[in-house]
Amino acid sequence: MSSEVEADGGLPRRMTTLLGNQINVFDALSNDFSDTPTALKSMFGRFDAWLQARPMMPTVTNPALGAEDFNRHWDQTKYGNFREKINQYREWIDDAYTETDRDASIQKWRRVFGEDFAKGEVVEKAATAVAFVLHETAPTDMVLAVSRLGPGILNRISPRLPHVEAPPWKAARNTFTVVVRALESHTRNGPAVRDITSGTILAKGREIKFRALQANGLPFPSNDYGVHWRVVNTDAEATKCNGLRGGFYPSHAHGVRWESTLYRGAHWVEAFVVLRRTRALIGKSDRFFVVIE
């Protein structure tokens, strides 16, 4: 679980005690603990409901020694953070549990358990996602496929590969268009060589400056909005070099992200714009594909 929940000496004992209190003798006859995923969902559902009903920090007593409580490393601020994070994990677990698509389910469980969950299957999927597209076409390499058939073929690569992290933000009711523009440079922070569009074939060893813009071409106001980037590597070389990526990264400057061209194949970036005040996702871009020869 994330270190954001809390880091103190009493957390394991508090966690064990609080979770244990959510189980009773009648659960032996219940379907709530019929298998591991169901048991996890049931325990966190009960635990979150218990915490949400208690906005003020409760006393957690040692079940084996009634005179001892586990609150000495805790205060109201830490408890509030803990309560909020458990609520978030409960939502993630429920989301992963109810997901019917296998790849999307793995992706969502990885958000709960971390990158080591189903790692073998994740690597296999990442390596074969491009091969699956190429099986339907003549070329045996995605760079050649784009060169011969055009960048439109890139849209056939599944965006829901299991190593691609799901957004951690809740979508706002009203969203805005987010556009990504890119410039190619020989060196990071160096002068631009040219504008590039999604699917442009690039050489290795180049630097790309991505910018997230509104539909009118203006940047999102920095005081109100933050821009995060999902960077995804796929294809054989990145897999072989242990260079798969699918997570979220901050902007280097407001609305700007630099990336290097390292691995032959097809990769992509997406921009996610978040309202700072509420942490709500107010828009995301389409995939911007980078093809490296």
Please give a handful of descriptors for the protein shown.
single chain, 293 residues, alpha+beta, 2 domains, 4-stranded antiparallel sheet, 7 helices
Q: How would a textbook summarize the main sheet?
A: 6 strands, mixed
Q: What is the CATH domain class of the largest domain?
A: Mainly Beta
Share of β-strand residues: 15-25%
- Let me know the CATH homologous superfamily of the largest domain: Immunoglobulins
Approximate shape: globular
Q: What fold name goes in the CATH topology slot of the largest domain? A: Immunoglobulin-like
Radius of gyration: 23 Å
Report the structural category. alpha+beta
Helical stretch count? 7
* Amino- and carboxy-terminal Cα gap: 38 Å
Helix content range: 25-40%
Overall average residue pLDDT:
84
Task: Please tally the β strands and state the result.
Answer: 12
Low-confidence stretches: 1-9
